[in-house]
Amino acid sequence: MLASCQEQVYPTDNEQLSHEEQIVIRFSHVVGENTPKGMAAVKFAELIKERSRGYVEIQVFPNGVLYKDGEEMDALLRGDTQMIAPAISKITTLVPEWSVMDLPYAFKNADEVHTYVESEIGQSLMTKLNAHNLYSMGIWDSGFKQLSNNIHPIENVRDLNGLRMRIMPSDILAKQFSSVGAIPKRIDFNTVFNQLQKGKIDGQENTLTNITSKNLYSLQDYLTISNHGYLGYLPLMNHEFWNSLPKDVQILLIETLEEVQEWEWQLAEELTAQWLKEMEACNCIKIHYLSDEDIEKWASAFDPVYDYYTDSFGEKYIQALPKYQTHH
Ligand code: SIN
Predict the structure, then answer these.
(1) Which member of 74, 173, 250, 298 has the greatest number of CB atoms within 10 A?
(2) What is the pLDDT of residues 178-236, one digit of tens each?
(3) What's the chain's average pLDDT?
């Protein structure tokens, strides 16, 4: 119902504003639009546009079209883009303590991850980002990583021996593979398809949404549902840029992100289940599932990775992992 003339405060149609008058936030990321991150970025942009009536415009650049993997962090720090949501493994090049999240079998499910990140120790990791001019706005899921390759089925951890496996830039991920005899290769996300096609690598680890959205499975014969590690994102802004925003805009962004985050978690779970079903049905890749018993064996095979982390950063981040907490 329309309000009467007296009480009506006409909303300004801020879409008429020029870019100089608007607040424009360029949000660059490297994955497809049909992934949990891609869809959450678009939803966030739509909600902000609607709620600020066009005063704040979030321009989303997916698939590395604006800045490629390996470039986006520098672009954010230079202020050339205002928002990114890199995989946590990539943040470890700045704050290596974050690689606790890369430890194999550190978490059983996404809820455990969220609880860890919200805990005091998780928040202390968040705070470390401030020293690098980064402002973190929560955590988004991609899901748990699986293993694919085209040499032979990976059923036992020793089957990884000798395989050239693509990883994100994280020393812990490198250690994860080298400790079981595989050869880790740090390769940008957007060139993984090409490197697989050229036979420069045998396999890779990633979440099902990333494996399917980039068609990586079409180049791979074997998939192991190992759920061996978490892949998630920190939506980040340049801290200086964040501080320059008006308080009411900061509040709008934070409140909207809280809502989008909940939605994104759910979406990541749904898309993962949906893609697994489709891959099972397509008969295009041979899928092997690790049993609970296998997982216990795999997890102990990765013990040296935990020692390696502890040697570098002490025990506190590991001790706070859910599997070392006693439940009452
Ligand atoms: C991403 O999900 O942002 C990319 C992850 C990767 O590099 O594998």
Answers:
(1) 173
(2) 999 999 999 999 999 999 999 999 999 999 999 999 999 999 999 999 999 999 999 99
(3) 94
Range of the domain at 164: 2-327
Q: Which atom of ligand 1 is nearest to the CA of 30?
A: 3
* Ligand 1 pocket, CB under 6 A: 30-31, 69, 87, 142, 168, 189, 206, 210
> What one-character DSSP code corresponds to residue 4?
P
CA 189 – ligand 1 centroid, Å: 6
Q: What Å distances lie between residue 97 and 58, 68, 92, 221, CA to CA? A: 30, 24, 7, 35
pLDDT over threshold 70, residue 302: yes
Looking up residue 193, the CATH number of its domain turns out to be 3.40.190.170
Could you tell me where the DSSP H helices lie in 203-291? Answer: 208-213, 239-244, 247-282
**87 alpha carbon – ligand 1 mean position (Å):** 6
* Residue 99 Ramachandran class (φ > 0 left, ψ -120 to 50 alpha, else beta): alpha
Distance, first Cα to last Cα, the chain? 54
Q: How many domains is the chain partitioned into structurally?
A: 1
- Residue minimizing CA distance to atom 6 of ligand 1: 189
C-alpha 153 – ligand 1 centre gap (Å): 23
Instruction: Classify the C-alpha dihedral 245-251-252-255 as positive or negative.
Output: positive
What is the distance, to the nearest Å, from the Cα of residue 199 to the centroid of all Cα atoms in its chain? 26
Residue 10 clears pLDDT 50, i.e. is over it: no
Percentage of residues in the chain with pLDDT exceeding 70? 94
What confidence score (pLDDT) does residue 145 get? 98
Nearest-atom number in ligand 1 for the CA of 166 is 8
Phi and psi based region of residue 150 (left: phi greater than 0; alpha: psi -120 to 50; beta: remaining):
alpha
C-alpha distance from residue 231 to each of 41, 54, 228, 243 (Å): 17, 33, 10, 29
